[in-house]
């Protein structure tokens, strides 16, 4: 997978990591970014069963992105453990773990590389397999955009936000935020056979129609696979096998959409408020949680 966080020192004795069979367990996971920072996670207990989709929801700053970064070993729990079929992730080299994960992060990296390399990035076999890259781009709905670029998949993409400060001319083609988001999604589609799929706000920056389309594609991709999805669009994750509400650094609620709605707790409150926002044509905030 694409790495975009601070790397941890690899342990001296790595264990190999077998394909996921049972699931991933977070056991009393506590985490803070440093001793000077407040606790973000305060004893999270959670099981992500093999073959199921777990949706993480909750208010801003609740620790959802932090939790998935721990799953990828960008950080380790300050206390507690994360177990992959019983194997403590601390005993696994980060790159071994990440070979088993396909991920799209909120803060995904846009590289000054060609369109093809931006999709295949980090996957040597894929970078030599144009057909695979193109299929992933089609799945993510970005093939037509890329094919229309001056040099198609060989066109250099520009991140477009560093050049002015550095006093350099931007080279390459600028994509919109939503188009970049689809490039990031294509990376995940390319890695569809990985054991764990992580999608952190996969439709961020997309217009409502594109968002609906992307979520439908992702629902098909996720089906029968182990995945963790973060989204504030509760309607887009209501079909998840398990919905987990993170609040106050712990799992506050957990269940199916129907069960949580019937429970009348935080999830029911958030969902009802969002649904009401969509029904109200003149809702001033656009109804995004
Ligand atoms: N690299 C970091 N260093 C220090 N604090 C951080 C860092 N990243 C996140 N935080 C803090 O950790 C807390 C949890 O953030 P996180 O991004 O995990 O929440 P979230 O639930 O994903 O939020 P959102 O819904 O807004 O995306 C926040 O208070 C945030 O400020």
Write the layout of secondary structure elements.
Elements: E1 23-31, E2 41-49, E3 53-57, H1 64-71, E4 79-84, E5 87-88, H2 94-98, E6 101-104, H3 115-120, H4 124-127, H5 130-139, H6 143-147, E7 157-158, H7 163-166, E8 173-174, H8 177-190, E9 196-200, H9 208-222, E10 226-230, E11 242-247, E12 250-255, H10 257-263, H11 266-279
Parallel strand pairs: 3-10, 3-11, 6-9, 7-8, 9-10
Antiparallel strand pairs: 1-2, 1-4, 4-5, 11-12
Bound molecules: adenosine-5'-triphosphate.
Family: Belongs to the ABC transporter superfamily. Siderophore-Fe(3+) uptake transporter (SIUT) (TC 3.A.1.21) family.
Protein name: ATP-binding cassette domain-containing protein
GO molecular function: ABC-type oligopeptide transporter activity; ATP binding; ATP hydrolysis activity
Written account of the structure:
The protein has a domain at 107-193: 3-Layer(aba) Sandwich (Rossmann fold). Residues 162-170 have low confidence and may be disordered. Strand 7, helix 7 (163-166) and strand 8 (173-174) form a beta-alpha-beta unit. With 289 residues, the chain is an alpha/beta fold. It has helices spanning 64-71, 94-98, 115-120, 124-127, 130-139, 143-147, 163-166, 177-190, 208-222, 257-263, 266-279; strands at residues 23-31, 41-49, 53-57, 79-84, 87-88, 101-104, 157-158, 173-174, 196-200, 226-230, 242-247, 250-255. The protein has 11 helices and 12 strands. The longest helix is centred in the last third of the chain and has 15 residues, at 208-222. The site of adenosine-5'-triphosphate has 11 residues, from helix 1. Residues 33, 37, 40, 58, 60-66 line the site of adenosine-5'-triphosphate.
């Amino acid at each position: 997978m694409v790495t975009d966080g601070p790397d941890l020192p690899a342990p001296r004795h790595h264990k190999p990591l077998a394909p996921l069979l049972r699931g991933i367990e977070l056991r009393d996971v506590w985490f803070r970014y440093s001793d000077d920072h407040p606790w973000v996670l305060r004893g999270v207990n959670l099981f992500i069963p093999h073959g199921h989709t777990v949706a993480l929801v909750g208010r801003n700053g609740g620790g959802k992105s932090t939790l998935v970064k721990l799953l990828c070993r960008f950080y380790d729990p300050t206390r507690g453990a994360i177990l992959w079929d019983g194997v403590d992730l601390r005993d696994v080299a980060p790159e071994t773990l990440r070979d088993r994960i396909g991920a799209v992060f909120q803060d995904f990296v846009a590289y000054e590389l060609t369109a093809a390399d931006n999709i295949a990035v980090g996957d040597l076999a894929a970078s030599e397999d144009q057909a695979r890259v193109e299929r992933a781009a089609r799945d993510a709905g970005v093939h037509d955009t890329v094919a229309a670029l001056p040099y198609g998949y060989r066109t250099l993409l520009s991140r477009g936000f560093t050049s002015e400060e550095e006093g350099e001319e931007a080279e390459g083609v600028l994509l919109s935020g939503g188009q970049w988001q689809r490039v990031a999604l294509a990376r995940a589609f390319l890695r569809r056979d990985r054991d764990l799929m992580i999608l952190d706000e996969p439709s961020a920056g997309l217009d409502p129609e594109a968002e609906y389309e992307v979520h439908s594609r992702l629902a098909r991709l996720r089906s029968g696979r182990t995945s963790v999805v973060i989204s504030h669009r509760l309607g887009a994750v209501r079909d998840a096998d398990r919905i987990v509400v993170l609040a106050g650094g712990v799992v506050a609620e957990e269940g199916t959409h129907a069960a949580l709605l019937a429970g009348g707790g935080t999830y029911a409150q958030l969902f009802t408020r969002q649904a009401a926002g969509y029904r109200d044509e003149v809702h001033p905030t656009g109804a995004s949680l």
